């Protein structure tokens, strides 16, 4: 996440005060110990690149820790989707390993698959809009 833990808590506190039934879609990064091999390789590339562009990732969550944090702000997880991330990493690699140069195409494919898989639940993919070349 590009936000500090304090900023995330403040945001969740504000969202927790919204009308019952409101939904929040968020993306988060796993701590290094929970990443699979592809996720670790990608993080080694992506995290320093994001930091160089002024967007460091100071926050990482386990699914259980995030569920606890949400609960502290009267929010509850509806579901935690791993498939989009798995689709992304699968599309972003070939026989040579992880290929960051394929990231744009991999993101497009992962979002397309999420839209197909969760056609009746746009909350699973609506926050992931890919624009660009």
Give your account of this protein's structure:
This protein has 133 residues and is mainly alpha-helical. The protein has two domains: 1-80, no CATH class; 82-133, no CATH class. It contains five helices and two strands, in the order ααααββα. The chain has helices at residues 5-16, 37-52, 63-71, 83-91, 103-117, and strands spanning 93-94, 97-98. The protein has a two-stranded antiparallel ribbon with strand order 1-2. Strand 1 and strand 2 (97-98) form a beta hairpin. Helix 4 runs antiparallel to helix 5 (103-117). The longest helix is centred in the middle third of the chain and has 16 residues, at 37-52. It is globular, with a radius of gyration of 16 Å.
Main attributes of the structure:
133 residues; mainly alpha; 2 domains; 3% strand
List the secondary-structure elements in sequence, H or E.
HHHHEEH
Global mean pLDDT: 78
Compute the number of structural domains.
2
| Alpha carbon gyration radius | 16 Å
Q: How would you write the strand order of the largest sheet?
A: 1-2
Distance between the termini: 24 Å
Helix/sheet category: mainly alpha
Shape: globular
